[in-house]
Every structure is written in structure tokens, then in C-alpha cells.
Amino acid sequence: MNKVKATFCVVIPLLLVYIFNTKFGAVPPLLKFLNPFTGFWQNAEPSGIGLNHKVVLKGTHDRVEVVFDDRMIPHIFANNDYDVYYTQGYVTAMHRLWQMDFQTLFAAGRLSEVVGSKAIELDRYQRRMGMVYGAENSLKGMMQDPKSKEMMTAYTEGINAYIHSLSKANLPLEYKILDFVPEDWTPLKCALLLKQMSAVLAMGSDEFYMSNILKKYGPEVTGDLFPDYPFREDPIIPKGTKWDFKPLSVPATPLAFNQMVTGDIRTKQKVDGIGSNNWALSGEKTASGSPILENDPHLDLTLPSIWYQIQLHAPGLNAYGVSLPGAPGITIGFNQHIAWGVTNVAADVLDFYQIKFKDNTHKEYWYNNKWNKTTERLEKIKIRGSHTETDTVIYTHHGPVVYFQKPEKLSRADNVPSGHALRWIAHEKSNELMTFYYLNRGKNYSDYRKALTYYTAPAQNFIFASADNDIAITPNGKFPLKWKDQGKFILDGSDPKSDWQGWIPASQNPTVKNPPRHFVSSANQSSTDQTYPYYINWEFSSYERGKRINDRLSKMTNATADSIRLMQSDAYSIFAENLLPALLSRVDNNALNATQKEAFNIISKWNKYYNAKEIGASVFDLWSARLFFDIWDDDFTIRGIPMRYPSRDRTIELILKDPNSKWFDNVLTSKKETLTDLVNESFKYTCDSLEKKFGTIGKNWEWAKVKQTHIPHLANIPGLGSKTLMMGGAKSTINALAEKNGPSWRMVVELGKNPKGHGVFPGGQSGNPGSPFYDNMIGTWSRGELYDLYFMQTPNDPSAKIISNLHISNK
Amino acid sequence: MVFIVILIASFLLQIIFPWWVIVIISFVTCGLIGKTAKISLWFPFAAIFLLWIGMALFKSIPNHNILAGRIAEMLAVKSWILVLILTGVLGGFVAAISGICGYHFRKAVLCKKTKSGQHAG
Fold first, then answer.
1. Contact A30/B90 with Cβ under 8 angstroms?
2. Is the Cβ of B68 closer than 8 Å to some Cβ of chain A?
3. Mean pLDDT across the stretch A418-426?
4. Is residue A119 part of a domain?
5. Domain count, chain A
6. Please, are residues B70 and A771 in contact by the beta-carbon 8 Å criterion?
7. Of all residues in chain A, what percent carry a pLDDT higher than 70?
């Protein structure tokens, strides 16, 4: 026998199996992925066939009917609460399992399990910020109330029923690409998902930068350039609204405390917040005489879509709207009687405390004039293809000490000062689910007010309208009771006076019902005027979007769903209106070359709309950004001292009111620059860089081509995102659509005897890139149109176009 | 014969077993009935190439090749047809190598039998 030959003949095929069944780097295991029996080809869903399925799910209590409409939106008809949330979990997993799983792995700092050591810094960051700690606390809150406990349990069981029904062949596509398998869902994952929303919307913190600025320039300059209330504002609660409560006394401000903290980070231009809008008109302003409510929450856009549309029908419940895949209930939507929506409140609910440790063991820290013990939390991070790492996080009574040694390449950690403890609202025990439980079943204004009291974070401007012709808005969340500006700068972790010392009572959160102007609105701007007795934050998004909304709504009469829809795509820039005249008048026309002259000509005639084909919009956008850079970069980018620029509002005020300010001089040159010098430099720079990047001035300079709006895949996998979309809109306009963020859901609800909903989101119901329903709504969304939503009364409601049915029984 | 056996066995067994069952099928089939080296190389190739392309098209055509197009973009190739060909060729290649290995394995083992026979004699 030829043993060598025989061995080779066995080893070679085994080797081939190994090679083609193993993931190398980012390349999926090739034949595991390509073979048409279990690989990606199996995820190619046929288009256009109707289904009539029966499935036995032992976990349900009674029969459930699910009908899918022609956009694959499920309408669930159940006979009890348990079944409705069980089925919500089941159908959401059917369409979005990988997305739910991946988002919670991300939230929990577990990406290294999937992608290996390249995610380790990100995982450490998530753990060290206390994401899992916060989720565990939240979960306790959610499990305390029997209603939310039932929601979580049922939803979890529904997801797991789906997971257990999966075979290798019908695993979602991304599992095959990234080569991993789903694990069982748990209620903790629901909590993690909600924490991730807090991380996205309420993790902003400038106090590290602000403390450095204070140290560098002193209190006077800091106060002047970073004022506590903007120069121009149009607050959410209309100016002059009276507060009908007796405020608690606010804790006293402790003596000044400031410690220079440094790090080697470049100053980034303050990116304008991602803008969300909502507004509601009372019947006095609408054609029908009943209110209309609108909401378009803006987020970083991704595919699969952030939201999942659904209708939930059970005794006492019939609501339609969008849900977050991974959380039971409907977050934004409407029912027979009311409609509600949210935009973000930039509340100051994240603070850093400087900690004095006794020694390098970090076992004790100085607080309230004595040494106090720290606790340790061990974070075990599994790394694919490597060992499991144990990361020890030190906790004080404030919260975790995020870093002793900051990672070098993790931009999201830039604003975290080393050696400081983090106090963050998302670490609190909470139960946001109850808010949505009650809103989904709400009948009137008092139900709305009751629902809001359950809400902790991330704070939202909850807008409301009812068929009874009530409208209201409430910047709502659990707000710490702070002294003014507590948390504008880094706080002293040894002084009890710097602690959060109680909460603003939920009933005293700013709110307004049926104001005389007959509409309510929000666009992330300041919650109130300066008469509100409590401190929520010193800085919010600039006022421009809110101002434009209020300007248009004040003039509007006989509004219809369509007039509201058209307003959603309004790209008029109040920012340009305020700034442009001051810039144009300073440009020295004689010093311009041909391209620059042409650009000047165009922008002088520009109508200040950021529409897709406007060249003026491209020029203005780059020009203003470069000008702000020219003004501030020399003063606020100093090696070793991380800082930030003053706000847009303050910069405009300086340009308009103080054109001879010393801040226009570039301190790095011997020459003394004026505002006019900077305006001209930045204009030429803008034209030159546009020409360099997009060629001769003309069609290629159009705003949509410069902006390049597109929707990437959640894990940035090439080919699974959208094409570049030729769309207008810009930050600071109502249609705040930037390169990769924008309106993640647009909804208009006409209330009345029978409510009519209209809505669209960029993407589709299915999370499967091989499904025709993955991105089928993008076209409608990009044209600024809305679909009529089917608000069904029974599974056989003839008003809806149904393409498929799912009958669920438990035997 | 080799062609038909591999084609049918692979179709049926892949419904239950992972893709690498084709390695075993090709190896065993050619090890038992592969008459020549050529047959043991090309017949498994052809069987799996055709089976996989056929199956891929069966899933992809009703989908209007939307997914295959996306995967082409992911793999940085120009067209979904190339993804299809890559699928067929790689599958065929692994089957072919397994087939030829099965054939030569038999040769190596038969060689032993002849030798032990001589000893006995």
C-alpha cells in the first residue's frame, strides 16, 4: 500500500473543506457562503407572490391573525396583550432578526465576538460607559411593573419562537457574511436596545472641552463666547407661557472648581445636531376642523431601516405606527383617538466628575471629606479567534471611571476626560416601556400626561393631538434638579454639593396645552424662554428650523395633510437668510477670478433654498463652514488642550453685531486680519476646492451632487446600502437631510372620527437585502411623498390591500 | 454514471447536510466507480458546476437577481453573472479535486491488496 499517497488523497479534500468553510479576515467562508443550498442564494426572496401561512406557536394563548399589506407591513389582531406582543416579537424577528441582534451586540460591547479584535476598543468603550450596567438597572425597573414585564416576556418569547424555527439555509444574510449564528433573545437585550437610543441621543457632552476653554480664556471670555441662552431663539414652549406650579428650591451653586484636563486631541468643528421636527395644529387651523400632527425624527440613516411599521390590535388597543426592532410597543404613531410623536431634547443629563484617588490601586476616593471605597465591575469581552479579555471598571457612587488611559484611535471617546467618573441618566433604573404602553392605548389629554410620567431617558419633546381637538407638547424626561450650569463644566467629584440632588417633578417639566397660536412645535431648540425656573441645559440646537416651522405655521390656515407634507420637504435656510447679506457685502469682486466671479453671481441670486439643483447652496454651505473655521480655529485648536468652537448662533451674532471683534484676527500670523479678510479668503477657498473636487462650475456643483446623500448598510457592508440619492435639504432647514442622516420616519396624522395616517421611511419593512421589500420605500421617501397608512379595524377590513396572511394558533 | 450519481446524491444530501457533503460524495463515488483519472476529475466538476448553477438560478431568477447583484457589488465584481460562475466553478473545483483524490486513494489502497496477495501466495 502506498501510505503516503493514500494519506495525501484524504488530506487534500479535508484541507479544501477547511479552507472554504472558514472565515479569513473580512472574507466570508467562501463555499459556506456561495453554495446555493445553504449559502446566500437562499436569501433571494421571490418578488410578488402571496402567502397564506398557518403556523403553530405553542407560546401563544389564543388564535392570532396577522395580515401583511402591500408594503409588507404587519397588522396584528390578537385576543389579549400577551399574544399581541408575542406576535410583534415574532414578526419583527421574521423581518429584522440580524439587525436586532447586531444592534444589541453593539450596545453590549460584544462586537469582538463577531468581528474579532478590531472591535475591541469600541467594546471596551461601550462597557466602560456603563451600557450593560445601565441596561441591567433599567431591566429591574421594567420587570417591576407586571404590565411591562408581560410585554417584555411575551416579546422575547415571540422572537425566540422565530429563532428556533430557523434552519441554516434561512439564516438572515448578514449572519452568513459575518459567519455567526443568532443566540436566544433575552429581556436584557430589549433594555440594551433602549440604552443604545440613549447613547445615540443623550450621550452628548462638552464639559471636558468647556473646562479647558474656561482654564485657557477665563470666565469672562467663556461667558461671552459660550452664553447660557442664545442670541436668537424661538423656544418650544412659546415665550411668555406661564408656569402654573410652585417650583422646588434649586440646590446652591458650590464655590468655583476647575481643574485643567488635557489630552492630545484636535478640535472638531461642532457638528450641528441631527435635526428632528414635530408639530401639531389644532382644528382652528385645519380644513377639517380636527387637529393634524406631524413628526419626522432624524437619525443616522441605515439599511435595514431603523424603524419597523406595525399595527397592534387587541382588546383595549388599536394603534398604528413605528416600533424599534427589539422593543415592544409603538414608539411613534396614532390610534383612534390620539396621535403622538417625539424629537430629542438636548438635556444635560451626562456629567463628568473629577475624582481624587488615594493611590494607584484606585480602591478609595475622596468624597465628603473622607475616603470612600470604590467598587469593581469585571467586564468579560470575548474576542473571536483569541482569548477572552477581562476589563476591570472602577465605580464610584457617581458611576464608572470611564478611562484612566484613553484609547488612541477611538474618536467617540474624545470628549471623555481621563480619571473622571461618569454620571449619566441612562444608568438609572427606568421603565420607558410604560410610557408607550399608555400612549398606545391613550384616549385623551389626561392619558397623555399620565403616560409621560413614566419616562426617563433619552428625554424627548412629546407632541400630542387628540380627536377632542386638544394639542400639547412637553419636553419630557427625568431631569436632575441642578444648580444653573451644573455640568457645563467638569464637576468636583469630592463635593456632595456637586451631586445630582433630586429631580425636577415630572408634573413641572415644561409643557403647553392649546396655546393661543393654535399650534405646537419642536425642532430640538431651547425648551423654554429664560423664565423657566429650572436648568435643563445651557445649549440646545440652533433655532433656525424651529423658527422656519413657526413662521410657516403661523401663516397657515385651512391646513390639509398635503400642506403639512409639503412643509416636511421645505429646505429654506434661515441660517443663510441671517448670514448671507453680511458676507456678500464684504466680498471684493475685483479680486476674484472667473470661476469665483461666476460663483459670486450665482450665490447673490440664490433663493436660500437648499434644493437639489441649487449651486448657491453648495457654495454657501462650504463657505460658511470655512469661514467659521477661519474665525475660530486659531483660537480653539491648541495642541494638548481639547476644546470646541463657539456656537453658530454666537458666531452669527459676532459677525452681525461686532464686526471689529478681536476674534477675527488670526493669532498665528503677524498681520492683523479683519472679518472682511476672512470672508474673502473663505470664499476663494470654497470656490477653489469645489472646482478641484467637482470640476468646472456648473451642473457638477449642484447641491445634491456635492452633498451625496446615501443610506449605508448598518454594518457598512458594500453593496447592501442605497445608491447615492439626488436630494435636497440640509441641516438647519426643516428638511434636515445631510450626507448620511435625515428623516428616519415621516408621519402626518389627520385626527377626527376616523383618523387618517400618512407615512414613509427610507428603506423597507424587510431587513433582508435579498427582499423586494428591503428598500422599496426609498423612492417615495426621496420624492417627499407619503403612503396612506392602512388603519384597519378587522383582519378583513376592505380598505387595505393585503398580500399575505399568517394564522397563528397554539395547537 | 459518475456524473449522474454525484448529481443526484449531492442534490438530495445537501438538503440535510452542509455543503461539504459534496466532497464526501465525489470522493466516495470516484473511489468506488471512477474508471479513469479523467472521469474522476471532470465528471464531479461538471455535476456540481451544473447542480449549483441550476440551484442558484432557481433561487435567483424569481428574485430578479436583486440579491446576486448586491453580492457582486460586495465582492467587487462587475456583474451577478460572475458571482454565479464563481459559485459553479469553485463548487466544481472542490468536487473535482475530491473526485480525483478518491480515485487515487483507491489506486493506493488496491496497490496494498495486490502486495498482501503476493505474500499470501
1. yes
2. yes
3. 94
4. no
5. 2
6. no
7. 97
User: Which cell is A618 given?
Assistant: 453648495
**A585-599 tens-digit pLDDT:** 999 999 999 999 999
- The verdict on residue A120 lying in a domain is no
Whether residues A554 and A639 share a domain: the answer is no
pLDDT in tens, A371-411: 999 999 999 999 999 999 999 999 999 999 999 998 888 88
Evaluate if residue A286 carries a pLDDT over 50. yes
Percent of chain A with pLDDT over 90: 91
Nearest residue on chain B to A4, alpha-carbon basis: B108
Q: Are residues A501 and A471 in the same domain?
A: yes
pLDDT-derived band at A273 (thresholds 50, 70, 90) equals low
| Total tally of structural domains belonging to chain B | 1
pTM of the predicted structure, to 2 decimals: 0.94
- The CATH number assigned to the domain holding A291 equals 3.60.20.10
Q: Is A714 inside a domain boundary?
A: no
Q: Which domain holds residue B10?
A: 2-120
Q: What is the pLDDT of residue A614?
A: 97
How far apart (Å, rounded) are the C-alpha atoms in residues A73 and B79? 32
Of B60, B71, B105, the CB nearest to A719: B71
Nearest CA in chain B to A168: B18
Q: DSSP character for A96? A: H
Retrieve residue A707's grid coordinates.
Answer: 452633498
Report residue A590: phi and psi, to 5°.
-70, -20
Instruction: State whether A594 and A559 are in the same domain.
Output: no
Please indicate, yes or no, whether residues A542 and A592 belong to a single structural domain of this protein: no
Cβ count near A146 (within 10 Å): 8
Q: Do residue A42 and residue B83 have CB atoms under 8 angstroms apart?
A: no
Answer yes or no: do A489 and A579 share one domain: no
What phi, psi does A359 have (nearest 5°)?
Answer: -155, -170
Domain range holding A592?
A: 574-608+615-701
Could you say which of A670, A701, A732 is where a domain stops?
Answer: A701
* Number of residues that make up chain A: 811
Kindly state whether residue A4 falls inside one of the protein's structural domains: no
Cα–Cα distance for residue pair A702/A690, rounded to 1 Å: 10
Whether cis (ω within 30° of 0) applies to the bond prior to A304 is yes
Chain B residue numbers touching A37 (CB-CB < 8 A): 14-15, 19, 55
Average pLDDT of chain B is: 91
Q: Does B80 touch chain A (CB under 8 A)?
A: no
Mean pLDDT of A459-479: 97
Residue A432: pLDDT above 80? yes
Q: Same structural domain for residues A360 and A384?
A: yes
Determine the pLDDT at residue B118: 43
Q: What is the pLDDT of residue B111?
A: 65
Please give, rounded to a whole number of angstroms, the shortest distance from the CA of A42 to a CA of chain B.
6
Average pLDDT, integer, range B54-62: 97
Whether residues A667 and A775 fall in one domain: no
Same domain, A631 and A751: no
Q: Which three cell numbers stand for residue A730?
A: 440640509
Amino acid sitting at position A17: V
pLDDT at A267 over 70: no
